[in-house]
Known about the structure:
single chain; 259 residues; alpha/beta; Rossmann fold; 6-stranded mixed β-sheet; 4-stranded antiparallel β-sheet; 23% strand
Amino acid sequence: MIKLVNVTHHYGIRPSLKNINLEVSPGELVCVMGPNGMGKTTMLGIVAGVLYPLRGYVEINGKRRRGSMEEENEIRKIVAYLPDHPWLPLGTTGREFLLMVGRFYGIEDDRLMDHVDRLLALFNMEEKGDSPIESYSNGQKKKIAVAGALATEAPILILDEPFSGGLDPSALLALKRVLERLAEREDITVLMATPVPELVEGLANRIAILKNGEIIAYDTSEGLRDITRCSGPLEQVLEKLMHEKTLENVDHYIKDWNK
Length: 259
């Protein structure tokens, strides 16, 4: 279980998170959504342990994040974090990077080598897998970064906008199908941020809406429809929660086009 208790953080005098309380149950896939600049990346960074909240705390399976060296080491064995802009060792090949990541998480070599082969095939990277990462396009770098998170076989995945970064349609489909299968497993927990409603519908068990540093809704997609009294696609439901004036602003913008 992932548990956030009264998590508060700010940069300078501007609060980015305000008393966030959130629980992600074992086996759930939860998507965090919200307008740009509302604290999604900060929240995931705190859950992942790369940021420390100014107030409040995070627990992973009952152990407090950064509570003690022993607890933190235990947490790190079971959590994999994919940041929005991941660092990659550019002089290393994609295959070497995936092998290093898997070995860091203690994956046995025979199992790991087979998994790496399948990951490279999954993202159509068989030919580029043995070339230096510095020769990759932006989309190929994102593919290897996503593959790195999957190579860990960690039971808890923290993914910050895994669908962004120039992934091609084939990679988007592959990643969505893999996440759908992970969402079916009771031993895998995923906390993910993404701005794309079409990728969330039917994928997330629950959706957390973050706006102005606060959780304004946390429910299933059908539950959010009930809250907003909107029976349309998830995109329309989210607009009611996050940007009530979007369509009005569009009409205002285009009203003089035919003049």
